[in-house]
Write a structure and sequence with these properties.
By secondary structure, this protein is mostly beta strands. It is 4% helix and 38% strand. It is built from 1 helix and 14 strands, in the order βββββββββββαβββ. The strands form 3 sheets. The chain has a 7-stranded mixed β-sheet, with no helix packed on it. The longest helix has 9 residues. The protein is globular, with a radius of gyration of 16 Å.
């Protein structure tokens, strides 16, 4: 299962590793000083809800070769404090690939949380939470309808392999895993799509609304974002 990892040192750089290395600076996106907003990057665009033109949403197109798109938010919260605060609504656009269009295969879309486990202020790895009602990006909704996803439910969607944990963990087991590490801190959270280049059914577009990664702000309209 291929995916990129987000590394956020003091210079606010993303290192996105796909077939090659794509480096995107998010410093301009954070220049507003409101670090609680969601910084848009890659192929993400501000868009209108396909079912209601008055509703402001975002969309990610994964069709361009090796494309990556998403929304980043700095957090500095504990895993336990995120309980009930990681969720989104998504709408897949049919892409013409049988049997039914765009899916959530290949570990994308996903939420990933960069976690510092030793208290030095740098991430020791990413916790990956995959979209869908089953592990590893299975059981996602068919294209053409809005679906709500709660990433802190009982689905074994979380992959903690970068920390030596399991790859099919529920949110409660994620909380228990990190509770044993007293210095843990979630430095940032990212919504990302990047699997089109190796999973054909993942190509196409997705609309997102009411994106919540941590407390204090939900991405409900364009004013909740910075970037393109």
């Amino acid at each position: 299962m291929r995916r990129f990892s987000v590394v956020v040192p003091g210079s606010w750089w993303f290192l996105l590793g796909l077939a090659g290395l794509l480096v995107v600076s998010v410093a301009p996106l954070m220049a507003s000083g409101n670090v609680a907003k969601y910084a848009l990057f890659g192929t993400v665009q501000k868009a209108a809800d396909p079912t209601n033109s008055q509703d402001q949403v975002i969309s990610i197109n994964t069709t361009p070769t090796n494309s990556v798109g998403g929304a980043f938010r700095p957090l500095n919260q504990t895993i336990h404090s995120l309980d009930g605060l990681i969720s989104l609504d998504y709408y897949f656009v049919a892409n013409g690939v049988p049997p039914g269009g765009k899916t959530c295969g290949g570990g994308s879309p996903r939420i990933q949380l960069a976690v510092d486990t030793d208290g030095d202020g740098s991430p020791n790895g990413n916790a990956f939470g995959y979209l869908g009602s089953g592990p590893f990006g299975t059981g996602c909704a068919a294209p053409g309808r809005w679906t709500h996803e709660n990433f802190t439910d009982n689905v074994p969607r979380w992959d903690l392999s970068q920390f030596g944990g399991g790859m099919t963990m529920t949110w409660s087991t994620v909380e228990a895993f990190f509770a044993a590490q007293p210095h843990e801190q979630v430095l940032n959270g990212v919504l990302v799509e990047d699997a089109c280049s190796f999973v054909a059914a993942n190509c196409g577009g997705t609309f997102y609304d009411t994106v919540q990664i941590g407390g204090g702000r939900t991405l409900e309209n364009w004013s909740d974002t910075t970037g393109p």
